[in-house]
Amino acid sequence: MNTHEYQAREILAGYGVPFPPAKLAFTAAEVERVARELGGHVFVKAQIHAGGRGKAGGIKRADSPEEAREAALAMLGRTIRDRMVRKVLVVQAVYLARELYLGAVLDRSLQTVTVMASAQGGVDIEQVAEAAPEAIVRVSTDPLYGLADYQARSLARAVGLSGEQVQAFRDIAQALYRAFWDCDATLLEINPLGVTTTGALVALDAKLVIDDNALFRRPGLAALRDVEQEDPAEVEAQRVGVQYVRLAGQIGCMVNGAGLAMATMDTIHLVGGEPANFLDIGGGARSDQIDAALRIILRDPHVRAMLINIFGGIIRCDMVAQALVNLLAQGEVRVPVVVRLVGTKAAEGRALLAGTSVHIADSMVEAAQMAVALAAGEDQR
Amino acid sequence: MSILVDKHSRVLVQNITGREGSHQTRQMLAYGTNIVAGTGVGKGGRTVEGVPVFESVEEAVQATGANVSIVFVPAPFAPDAIVEAADSGVELIVCITEGIPVLDMVKVCAHVRAKGARLLGPNCPGVISPGLSKVGIMPADVFTPGPVGLVSRSGTLTYEVAAQLTALGVGQSSCVGIGGDPIVGMSFTDILGLFEADPATEVIAMIGEIGGTAEEEAAAFVGERVTKPVVAFVAGKTAPRGRRMGHAGAIVSVGQGTAEGKIAALREAGVLVGETLEKTTEAVAALVAGSRR
After folding, report:
1. B213 CB contacts (<8 Å, ≥6 apart)?
2. Domain range holding B165?
3. Fewer CB within 10 A of the end CB, N or C, for chain B?
4. Which of A101, A130, A134, A332 does the annotation list as catalytic?
5. Are A282 and A173 part of one and the same domain?
6. Which site among A177, A182, A311 would you substitute to test the B interface, given the most B Cβ atoms closer than 10 Å to its Cβ?
7. Does some domain include residue A9?
8. Given B102, B154, B255, which is nearest A129 (Cβ)?
């Protein structure tokens, strides 16, 4: 689950991480008032669940309350990076000598939490990782002991800090590490971690991603969810208990199992088409979930054909077929459909679909080829 | 021969009294799995499908000599169930449960390692040694005994590949699902090592997917330690960066985990990588036929 900057900031501030004074605002008039309270020189930052806000006009410097108001008017009620801006964070401007990066992530290979720092802060760390991986220093922690003092100090020295800054950095790094565990985070970063012209450390942006699997035991964090920042189709999918990710292509697919769903998408691509989505109905989907999943795909206006690929196990192929037959009878299916059924009750499923407009395929490759051809045929009409 | 489980495995079902646990117990018993015990909190003294139920893993192990457990405990309590099994001397713990908080698994994996136990999963279909034992939730009829060792991060891809191999007349020694989560117990590398040492395995099929570096580590291991032919498939070439593709572990992030990177590393190590599942299973079948000539 993604969170907003202001939420991550509040959490980290609770662990003692220093941030410049700031306030959340919902209207341009509020922004102007807050900017005045903060001394006039501020940054106005759109609160959206998207990276690259700065380049897209979502972060603006203002040197007077009036300028802050203008900046807010250009953001509030508009979309930036496809996300609606409903609120902005007004932050007192600070004068920086340097921008560092500090973050904690899950290290899958070492099976622990890794804390990373870089002297090249302020930019997307993924870009640094690709362009200059040696510019990122990492320490992996012992889950029992946590981030040791010496590890935090070595990170501080590696990013060019000295003297009292080393202790200040250690405190921030250990606060970040504790917050990571307490929040069941999969990513928690401070970027940039600024070094002011007087040498003090101050956090200027924060990003927190929370493990969806842990939300059941973190009700306070679950309440931070901002559904409006998410794709409505993905929200609906989550509500009914299936996994859906919208993609850019024209072939809607419904598959059981994440691996098989990805392999189906790849096969569509290989035979010249593009998948419109990833959709995994899971291992034990009920017929109401299958119906909801089919409707989510059909609501996507880009979908020109649908491919259903089911390897029946606990899921019975005849149940999937019946859900499709019901939808056909209701006149809800506006695109050609290709179905491939294997495993439990596959013959029964195919029998249910006999005599309908649905195309039956034997293999994944054949199914993908048929779906791609049918989607292209739709285009020509 | 086979890996991880065979006729001698004495299997304990954790949460045998739950809906999924009792249903899958029936399926495993029908396959011939030697299920000796189950656990159910507050349900000790009952039987499920003729299997005695105990209050704790320790009691079950003492009474029956169970050495393999399969966990059907819901996600909030599954980490505890794994720790209990490891503390009670169970040698192999197969965790089917999906949705376990990942930081719990950081602690659980460290604990299991310290106890010297083996963990398969979580969020995995389990393991089957066709004709011998099934400790998992896979549909049994697509598997058949033979010389191919199959390891995968995905459940349905395991079934799909096994079904295709079986249709080509090629059987399997053991089929192992290692699980789709970011942090799992046994890795591809661990399973490849077991297949390399297993006399019944002649060809190894490995089904990877985007996210993490497990396939790259497996490639390095194959290059150094595996003499048997390895054929691989990597799912997720068309997945966008930064998006979780169903499996919590299937996500391309911070410049790593792409399908291209994995395929390149595997090919570098001499692994045959199939463009599609069909081509992958055909390559496996050709290698099996070649080694029999």
Report:
1. A108, A109, B256, B257
2. 138-292
3. C
4. A101
5. no
6. A311
7. no
8. B255
For chain B positions 218-247, those within 8 Å of chain A (CB to CB) are 233, 235-240, 243-247
Which phi and psi (to 5°) does residue B14 adopt? -85, 125
Q: How many CB atoms lie within 10 A of CB B260?
A: 10
Asked if B71 and B161 sit in the same domain, the reply is no
Domain identity same for A236 and A363: yes
Is B207's Cβ below 8 Å from some Cβ in A?
Answer: yes
Interface contact A216-B155, CB threshold 8 A: no
Cα–Cα distance for residue pair B246/B229, rounded to 1 Å: 30
Within-domain flag for B97: yes
- Among the partner residues A259, A265, A266, nearest to B152 by beta-carbon distance: A259
Mean pLDDT of A111-128: 90
Does residue A4 fall inside a structural domain?
A: no
At B293, the pLDDT band (50, 70, 90 cuts) reads low
Residues forming beta bridges with residue B68, ordered by sequence position: B11, B92
Tell me the pairing of strands A59-62 and A42-46.
antiparallel
Task: Tell me whether B107 touches chain A (CB under 8 Å).
Answer: yes
Q: Would you say B50 and B34 are in contact if contact means Cβ atoms under 8 Å apart?
A: no
| Interface size, chain A vs chain B, as Cβ–Cβ contacts under 8 Å | 171
Least reliable range by pLDDT among A144-158, A312-326, B60-74: A312-326
Q: Give how far A281 is from chain B: nearest CA, Å.
A: 9
Whether residue A380 is predicted with pLDDT greater than 50 in this model: the reply is no
Sign, CA dihedral A155-A158-A160-A161, equals: positive
Q: Is B5 part of a structural domain of the chain?
A: no
Asked if B110 and A111 come within 8 Å (Cβ–Cβ), the reply is yes
User: What are the CA-CA distances from residue A206 to residues A104, A126, B55, B65, B232 (Å)?
Assistant: 12, 15, 46, 52, 40
Which CATH number belongs to the domain containing residue B214 in this structure?
3.40.50.261
The continuous run of DSSP H or E covering A191 comes out as strand A185-196
Whole domain around residue A68: which residue ranges? 21-92
Q: Is B157 found in the same domain as B111?
A: no
Q: Which residues of A touch B77 (CB under 8 A)?
A: none
What letter represents residue A84's amino acid? M
Q: A122 falls in which pLDDT band (50, 70, 90)?
A: confident
Q: What is the pLDDT of residues A277-305, one digit of tens each?
A: 999 998 778 899 999 999 999 999 999 99
CB contact under 8 A, B233 and A263: yes
Nearest Cβ partner for A278 among B159, B246, B259: B246
